[in-house]
Amino acid sequence: MFENWEELESNCLKCTKCKLCETRTNLVFGYGNKNSEIMFVGEGPGEREDAMGMPFVGRSGKLLDAMLSEINLSREKNIYICNIVKCRPPQNRDPLPEEQDLCINWLRNQVYIMKPKIIVSVGRISAMKIIDPNIKITKDHGKFYVKKNTVFMPTIHPASLLRNPSQKELVRQDFLNLQQKILEICERTY
Ligand code: SF4
């Protein structure tokens, strides 16, 4: 494990552990306030993210930012956002289990340094990888899980909300649950 962000990021940026390194434009390490108490974890970069080297940009990123701002969260201020895999899977396919397994230690190291109180899994792949492989995102979104003193909450991916706008109300409720949990256990977020 690397003990500081600079060392971790500079080593991660050179990673060639899986084949996704061959097709990436940019590795997407993560973005946001590294001293915050809340980490959001998606599944992996898409086309825009790969082009810009930033997580959750483009239409789904804008929607996520708008919904976060409703509960006074922003990546500029009080959260950090990253992904399970740091390089884009071609054609935006789901990251393969072996790619997730090879990449997950970068995320573990991010969590080790940041020590978030709450981790929000954005989407099915992230929830199944870091919370519970049996999670059903349509049923279990917005629920809290506690593992090793960290609170986890899965929520629906904003790309899914763009396809099914009626799900926005479900995510709004997830985020209200999250806001309540932040008020209960976080000291520096609001
Ligand atoms: S996806 Fe992860 S494991 Fe694969 S090359 Fe990128 S950083 Fe390394």
What secondary-structure arrangement, pairings included, does this model have?
Blueprint: H1 5-12, E1 31-32, E2 38-42, H2 47-52, H3 58-69, E3 80-83, H4 97-114, E4 118-122, H5 124-130, H6 137-140, E5 145-147, E6 150-155, H7 158-163, H8 168-185
Parallel strand pairs: 2-3, 2-4, 4-6
Antiparallel strand pairs: 1-3, 5-6
The structure holds iron/sulfur cluster (SF4).
Give a concise summary.
The protein is an alpha/beta fold.
Question: Which labels suit this protein?
Answer:
Uracil-DNA Glycosylase, subunit E; six-stranded mixed sheet; binds iron/sulfur cluster; 6 strands; alpha/beta
Folded structure, characterized:
With 190 residues, the chain is an alpha/beta fold. The protein has a single domain, classed as Uracil-DNA glycosylase-like domain (Uracil-DNA Glycosylase, subunit E). It contains 8 helices and 6 strands; from the N terminus they run H-E-E-H-H-E-H-E-H-H-E-E-H-H. The chain has a 6-stranded mixed sheet with strand order 1-3-2-4-6-5. The longest helix is centred in the middle third of the chain and has 18 residues, at 97-114. The chain is globular. The model has no long low-confidence stretch (mean pLDDT 97). The site of iron/sulfur cluster has 15 residues, from helix 4.
